[in-house]
Design brief:
This protein is mainly alpha-helical. Helix content is about 25%, strand content about 0%. The radius of gyration is 33 Å and the shape is extended.
Amino acid sequence: MTVILDPLRNRHLRVFAVAVFAALLLLLCLSLNANRSTAADFQRRAAGAGPRAKVDKTKKPRIDYTNFSHDTHVTQQKLACDSCHKFPTANWKQVRKAEVAFPDVAEFPEHFACLNCHRQQFFARERPTPFICANCHVSSSPRDTTRFEFPSLGDVADPAKKRRDVVSEFVVSFPHDKHMDVIGSHAPEPGRGRRAGFVNAAFHQQQSKEESDPKLCVICHQTYQPQGDSPEEYVTNPPKNIGDAFWLKKGTFKTIPVSHAQCASCHNTEAGIEPAPSQCDACHKLSPPQQETVDFDPKLPVTMGTTDRMILSRWQRRESSATFPHEGGLHPTLSCTTCHNVPTMNTANAKSLKVPIKSCGGAEGCHVTATTDDGGALNYEIDQRKAKTDFQCTKCHLSFGKQALPTSHMEAVAK
């Protein structure tokens, strides 16, 4: 029996087969694409980036409520300091005991100060706790209400309290000239009573060499970690055979007030001296500090194993000589006013705190002398820089020594 195939029907079968094959191929491609997309989303989630979402350019950026901003509240919302901070806080007798206690703002604002504006953030369904809580609270647990130590309690050493490392939005305005004529001659050191007596004083008075620091300066500034009679001169153990290489020494820095303790000796409710302790904005200025270039190399503290908070905070702000030691050489025999122009110093103005290079010359020519043969360190290093363009000045500087010689240094050694 002979079977005769219909050519038309045969053609239709071939078209149908091709169509089915194309459809299967399309489904396979779509499936592969879906799998790749799912894998990519999984990788993003594993990396913490979350699934890919469309970017809405008209949508405002999400506010990070874990990063409290005084600028937002003071500049934009026009809130006064006492809108949140109450003077004194209820815990002022607990943070400092007995005779050293004084009325102070010693705790973060209470919840009611925030709820008027941030009720939505306080009751957000965020785990383990609403993100806004991290500004004040140490633990992210509703069972633990422990707060960080309040930033103004720099004189309180409580190992049970954890401090939050934040960069302050404020600069403290302390005009030295306004404290020149009247100052607490019996201003107590931390740990003593708070009553103050006052005497007329002058920063420009002549000091004998036996009197290392003017009595006025030491009320707020003491040598930090002095070497004294210790045989060890360095903050951390230096490498063997260090020679003349730089390594941070003890007694390099002076302390500055880190709390309201010294201020309360004079500015208290009993004395009635303005500004009152409740006037926060009289000293704490929100205007950003001048961005001065500092002579600091962040790699050095790591290399030296230096972790002391006070040392790091002072060192990171050195705008003149990063290696200058207050206790080194003949420096302890000098009056503070030999180098510092105290009447012009205001802590809110970084430029007013700089020490001019001419101070390093001194009456007898210490580091700046008439000629290089007289032994001036600045003279020597400038001569070396002139002879070798790649010479780095390391006697006083960490970072500045790699830069071009400033005009002030050239003028200091000019004949």
